[in-house]
Records
---
Amino acid sequence: MDTTEIVALILFLIIWGAYFLIIVIQYFQSTAETERIVTYNVRTAFFLPAYALMLFITVFKPYAFAGLNIFITFMEGYSFYCFFMMLVYNLGGPVKAVEAYNKVERELACCRGCCPSDGLAFYKRIRWALFHFVFTRTVVSIAAALATLAHNERVARALGALFSVINVVILFSCLIHILLFCKFSLSTITPLSFLMTCDVFIR
């Protein structure tokens, strides 16, 4: 193995070792009250070792990147979905989240004109954005991987660029919705609950 492969192997082992250590420590210290938050934290953080696995394989098999990108795209969406569900859980569930949104001052929840006035509509919009983040981006990544098989290199590059732009647009759209929901959550969640979540996540 050359130097690049050795470094990739060391980083892979460090990241996966740290992730498993986090799992053991968090679940060992979790209680019935914090188990759900710990579960969402662990699932949200899984994209880090997933990235490490993809990069490790790519170092040894560069041609496998297009196929592996499908896996990492799905894991990104799944991680954001788990993060969103952790926020909803902190707010007391979907019903409580919608009720809290309807009560909070709009200036605290969103930038002017960004969000609907109805909490249920806001919640559905975020769920729809997450659907595109998990499902649509994965389908586009599959199409991008298939595009690399085109016999014409120019066509393959053009299709790859097109699918990349589509994925970036979907990514930023979902990130904006998640950030707005985070802003809303921080304006309604109790300081004690928020600090408990941070404490569980850091531990």
---
Amino acid sequence: MAYEPSPAADLNMRDPSQPFTPLARRSILAAACLLAAALPPAVHPATIYHCKTYSGAVYWSENACGKSSGVMVDMVQVPDGMPFKEQVKIGERLQQDRQKAQSGEDKDRDRQRQCSAIDREIAEIEAQYKNGRHLPADQVSSHQNRMRDLRSQRSRLNCQSR
């Protein structure tokens, strides 16, 4: 038999099939409305375009570059509802951040390439000693000096262990 509250049921009486009492549901709804009213309105992104004219001049636009006879260099998302000059400042900062990140990635790739080349050279030198072949003393000395230099370079570049 299902629970059916009487018409005069107390607001604090809980229907066993419901997680909250009617009073608790009303309180939660009221709190949610107050919270929603207190929050600032959502900021929607605007897109601004970094354009280049056919003569080479660059400029920012709120409209697609093709509408002003330009070619798009980049586009960035910025907060809507602020002056265009402020949006441009944000756009320029975003571009600089991207360029710094790209530059850092390029440096890391270059460092990894250098580390790989050093590791290959170390392996080539070590391979000459693994087969038990006799090498002249001056070549051994040269290899020792080169290995010291290579290990120093590995350390300076913070190469990962081989």
---
Amino acid sequence: MKLLITLLLVFFASAAYAQSGERYLVLNKPGHIKRIRFVEGDELSFRLKGDKKRYTAEISKIYPDAILFGEVYVPLKNIRSVRYHKDTYLANMVRISSITAVNAGLTIAGIGLASGMVNAASNDGPVYNSLLLGGLWLAGSGTVIKPLYRRNYKLGPNRWLSTIEFAHPPHDAVLIRP
């Protein structure tokens, strides 16, 4: 039993040492989830101050006050907003249903509009109008649920980017045995 505990402690200590020296980019924000963490290799979508274009790039290196995207060095203070894409099962289902609702709604609205134009002389007008309105409602609902899987965070006094670095453990650390 002592051997098993010793092996587990050595394993966890080596795992902690392997992770030491890593930096994380953190989006601090109010709410239930206080921080969103980004690591090297993650894709980040952001806007710079004074620029309307949105940039999307993979994080190559994280410095204490800046991020390196490929060969471009971007200071944290120059970033105006960050777009966060949730990558969970539920978020992916919401994204798929949103895209499907918009496409199906526009198709149904187009069929209703075309049928209403063709059959303008007939008395079936309310049926085609309901197709048009139902299709537009479906497309609108698909557009409304889009922020559930993609959120823009405008940086300011309540939301800010910072870096966290895990330091190396001291070499004279004492192993506590039970």
